[in-house]
Write a structure and sequence with these properties.
The complex is a heterodimer of chains A (111) and B (116).
Chain A: E1 4-5, E2 10-14, E3 19-25, E4 32-38, E5 44-51, E6 56-59, E7 62-67, E8 72-77, E9 86-93, E10 100-101, E11 105-110
Parallel strand pairs in A: 2-11
Antiparallel strand pairs in A: 1-3, 3-8, 4-5, 4-9, 6-7, 7-8, 9-10, 9-11
Chain B: E1 4-7, E2 10-13, E3 19-25, E4 31-37, E5 44-51, E6 54-57, E7 64-66, E8 76-78, E9 87-94, E10 106-107, E11 111-115
Parallel strand pairs in B: 2-11
Antiparallel strand pairs in B: 1-3, 3-8, 4-5, 4-9, 5-6, 7-8, 9-10, 9-11
The chains are: A mainly beta (111), B mainly beta (116).
């Protein structure tokens, strides 16, 4: 069974610092990996999707890397802002329709 | 604007009562999903549907039921058989069929259900 782990569970940084969020998974047979953002009491917003054949994806200040063989993905957020405060979740997709989600990393960016 | 609408945002029920959560999407997506989120845990899949009039159980389907009579709608009923129903419920959709594998999930804003 696929297990997805996100460590640390919470992170607090001063504004302007770069954020590094980690996601690890136990089964490397994945179709893609997605990063989501969740604000308190809200649904999830898709940030980046990396296909299994890709090594990274970029969108603005966000960059996500994927190392399938080692079962790891990293989300980098450059020059963090207070508006980046949220919970970030990763999810991996095997060859069926069932994504496996991590529990998330809750980020606080201090002004 | 296209999106997924979940209603109500908050729902309170007494133990032993069935309750239905609404999920409507206008994204013309074929696939729809129901997830449950509990504090400190990842999302867990309850049911999913790839096409109208068809749905499959997810990892924690016991005590839940769904229907998919229309493409736009995928209501979830939490029955009295669900032993721990208090949670945050999220509905999602994606394009579906073969295109779906590399298309992102779109989520609604969730329904928080409290059963006392």
């Amino acid at each position: 069974k696929q297990e997805v782990t996100q460590i640390p569970a919470a992170l607090s940084v001063p504004e302007g610092e770069n954020l590094v969020l980690n996601c690890s998974f136990t089964d490397s047979a994945i179709y893609n990996l997605q990063w989501f953002r969740q604000d308190p009491g809200k649904g999830l917003t898709s940030l980046l999707l990396i296909q299994s054949s890709q090594r990274e994806q970029t969108s603005g200040r966000l960059n996500a890397s994927l190392d399938k063989s080692s079962g790891r993905s990293t989300l980098y957020i450059a020059a963090s802002q207070p508006g980046d405060s949220a919970t970030y979740l990763c999810a991996v997709r095997p060859n069926d329709y069932k994504l496996s989600f991590g529990a998330g990393t809750t980020v606080t960016v201090r002004a | 604007d296209g999106g997924i609408t979940q209603s109500p945002k908050y729902l309170f029920r007494k133990e032993g009562q069935n309750v239905t959560l609404s999920c409507e999407q206008n994204l013309n997506h074929d696939a729809m999903y129901w997830y449950r989120q509990d504090p400190g845990q990842g999302l867990r899949l309850i049911y999913y549907s790839q096409i109208v009039n068809d749905f499959q159980k997810g990892d924690i389907a016991e005590g839940y039921s769904v229907s998919r009579e229309k493409k736009e709608s995928f209501p979830l009923t939490v029955t009295s058989a669900q032993k721990n129903p208090t949670a945050f419920y999220l509905c999602a959709s994606s394009i579906g069929q073969e295109l779906e594998r590399n298309s992102p999930l779109h989520f609604g804003n969730g329904t928080r259900l409290t059963v006392t």
